[in-house]
Amino acid sequence: MRERRHSRVHWWMLAAAGLVALLLAPVASSWPDGLERVAEDHGFIARAITLLRAPIPDYILPGVPGSAATALAGLLGVAVTFFVVWGLTRLALRATRH
Hints:
This protein is mostly helical. Helix content is 63%, strand content 0%.
């Protein structure tokens, strides 16, 4: 019973985080982050190399128009983060039970 209640709380927390991401991601700052800003200000941004391609570059979901692209990117980020943490937690709990 207690585990079921915790599971329900987790789903409500995911829904709340998703709603916050959906509503607030479009109003997030479009200015460059700290490191990118420093690179621009000191003129070495052109020498930057790409090690890995971002799946959602600049927090804009490709193929989705307007501010919905940013909102959906935020929602997708919340979902991916939640399921990765949830999966790792389940693995850790399973390992401690044995």
